[in-house]
Design a protein that fits this description.
The chain has helices at about 30-45, 65-70, 90-105, 150-160, 165-175, 180-185, 190-205, 210-215; strands at about 50-55, 60-65, 75-80, 85, 110, 120-125, 135-140. The chain is an alpha+beta fold. The chain folds into two domains: about 5-140, PAS domain (Beta-Lactamase, 2-Layer Sandwich), CATH 3.30.450; about 150-215, Orthogonal Bundle (Arc Repressor Mutant, subunit A), CATH 1.10.10. The strands form two sheets. A five-stranded antiparallel beta sheet has the order 2-1-7-6-5. Residues about 15-25 have low confidence and may be disordered.
């Protein structure tokens, strides 16, 4: 059982994804089970949200790439003696309660940390099965950004936007107003408004709101910013 004295983080090394427990039960299923586990790991790595699979006491069974980033970059979560724990000791009781209640079949939504490091987490119960006699908990991490920069850049290239127009689009996606975008880019507001008109024409968007809704609905482009997976 975890306690506050154990909140010393350990490094999250670049390694193969942890295997799913119970992916096969015998030698005759080993090859097929390993292939399925690898495929599922690759699928989870393409998700924009961090996903962790833990036991009722927080033991880490699997983490996708965004989740490993959160664990390894001084975020709201860390890895402690193989267990997922909050970085702040004052969050430990809240975290353990949410995980334990999820293990009992109750979904939970909670927040760890505060300010820029705050992270919303959904704890989703995964019932026990023949292969997994103990219930597991799926922790789905909130996204740090509404739209990833790489996704915006990819969209800008496919729509034929100029570099200046792409900068304006990034600012709009961050919630900035044209005047604030102009200040950040060091240009006149009239220039930004002209660029917004050009962006709308190239993307065939009737309004800025329609444009931002379209960008927000884009699938994430995650794999391009990761190092190749080890073989």
């Amino acid at each position: 059982m975890l306690n506050a004295d154990m909140l010393t983080p350990e490094p999250v090394a670049q390694r193969r994804p942890l295997p799913f427990p119970g992916s096969y039960t015998g030698p005759e299923r080993r090859s097929r089970g390993e292939r399925l586990t690898r495929c599922l790991s690759l699928v989870l790595d393409e998700m924009a949200h961090g996903v962790l699979l833990v036991s009722a006491d927080g033991l880490l069974c699997h983490a996708n790439h965004p989740a490993r980033d959160e664990l390894g970059h001084h975020g709201a979560l860390q890895l402690t003696q193989g267990h997922v724990t909050p970085s702040r000791p004052e969050d430990l009781a809240r975290f353990l309660l949410a995980v334990q209640e999820a293990a009992l079949g109750r979904r939970r939504l909670f927040t760890l940390g505060d300010g820029a490091r705050a992270l919303s987490i959904a704890a989703v119960p995964l019932p026990a099965s023949r292969d997994n006699p103990e219930p597991l908990v799926l922790l789905v991490l909130g996204r740090r950004q509404h739209v990833e920069t790489l996704t915006i850049d990819f969209f800008a290239r496919t729509q034929g936007l100029t570099g200046a127009e792409a900068n304006v689009l990034r600012g709009l996606c961050r919630g900035l107003r044209p005047k604030e975008v102009a200040r950040d880019c060091g240009v006149a507001v009239s220039t930004v408004r002209t660029q917004i008109t050009s962006i709308r024409q190239k993307t065939q968007s009737q309004s800025i709101r329609a444009l931002l809704e379209r960008v927000a609905a884009l699938p994430p482009i995650n794999s391009l910013i990761r190092p190749p997976s080890p073989h």
